[in-house]
Specification:
Elements (H helix, E strand, L loop, with lengths): L5 E5 L4 E5 L5 E5 L21 E2 L11 E3 L2 E3 L14 E6 L2 E7 L2 H6 L4 E10 L2 E10 L5 E3 L1 E3 L2 E3 L11 E9 L2 E5 L5 E7 L4 E5 L10 E3 L6 E6 L3 E7 L5 E5 L6 E8 L18 E3 L4 E10 L2
Antiparallel strand pairs: 1-2, 2-3, 4-12, 5-6, 7-8, 8-9, 9-10, 10-24, 11-23, 12-22, 13-22, 14-17, 14-19, 15-16, 18-21, 19-20, 20-24, 21-22
Length: 295
């Protein structure tokens, strides 16, 4: 989103920039000017950190059904690339974006939602808080997630293979596979075997994202083999995790999700979609993840 106006927040440790279009986190720099966010090379992958709402991933045949009617929202939802977000609060160390339902959104997504996204700094940590409000008289259904892409390697004289992900706990999780339309195909692959480390290499992502549904860890760190911990993403409010990069991209996405891409055999019923969240009328929902810079 290089052509979007960028808004900034800062404290005495970090400076953050967010695109006005789509409210994408596009820069985290420390006092030394070190950049930690992928700079969205359009020849590789032209995004920084898409905001995922009200779906994650793809819908089968790009549609879903609710109470017998057919609807459609784009891959990863409609906050990504959205030019109609408004800034409702902007202080030195925090900023809030908002998007609310209108007659147009109701044609594609039949819920009277309010979406608030707040970025706030606390010492060396950036908190990303999502608030969903259901203004309707009936329950609403949605998914929610983050997609931050971290620069890897940080320095030009380093290699991608110099880095690894360190999980909070030793894992035995399987990977859930997707087809070439980005839909779950029901297949799995043995992946972790009592380990808390994932060495990074480009061909790790030759079959698309690594999708995990049952990680014990609620924190994942990006580490350099000799320089140690670079940053940590904490996501206690989220159930699923995706790890992804382009095979020719010098970045790694660590993605906390509440929800998941469709199954290839789904019937499209939005109320029974895997991982879907239900929010009762006139209620609100909050979920937060945090990025701590340790370098």
């Amino acid at each position: 989103m290089k052509d979007s106006e960028k808004l900034s927040i800062k404290n005495n440790i970090l400076k953050i920039e967010i695109t006005k279009i789509g409210a994408e986190l596009c820069s985290i720099t420390n006092q030394n000017g070190q950049e930690f966010i992928w700079q969205a090379d359009p020849d590789v992958w032209g995004s920084h950190a898409p905001v995922l709402f009200p779906i994650i991933g793809a819908l089968k045949k790009n549609k879903f059904y609710y109470q017998g009617k057919k609807y459609s929202v784009p891959k990863h939802g409609f906050i990504r690339h959205n030019k109609n977000l408004i800034v409702t609060d902007h202080k030195e160390s925090s900023i809030t974006f908002q998007y609310k339902y209108d007659k147009k959104t109701l044609k594609d997504y039949p819920f009277e939602f309010e979406f608030n996204l707040t970025f706030s700094l606390d010492n060396n940590s950036l908190n990303v808080n999502h608030e969903i409000i259901n203004h309707g008289a009936n329950p609403m259904f949605f998914s929610l997630g983050g997609h931050p892409a971290f620069k890897c390697p940080l320095q030009e004289n380093e290699n991608y293979n110099d880095y690894f992900l360190k999980f909070e706990k030793k894992e035995d999780s399987i990977r859930h596979l997707i087809n070439n339309q980005g839909l779950q195909n029901g297949k799995t692959q043995d992946f972790f075997n009592n380990t808390d480390m994932l060495p990074l290499k480009h061909d790790l992502f030759k079959d698309d994202a690594l999708i995990f549904k049952d990680l014990k860890s609620k924190e994942i760190s990006l580490n350099h083999i000799t320089k140690g911990k670079i940053l940590t993403i904490s996501y206690k409010d989220f159930d699923y995790v995706g790890v992804w990069a382009k095979t020719n991209g010098d970045f790694v996405c660590i993605e906390p999700w509440l929800g998941i891409t469709d199954h290839e055999d789904t019937d499209g019923n939005f109320e029974t979609k895997e991982g879907i969240l239900k929010l009762d009328a006139k209620r609100s929902f909050n979920a937060r993840y945090s990025i701590s810079i340790d370098f």
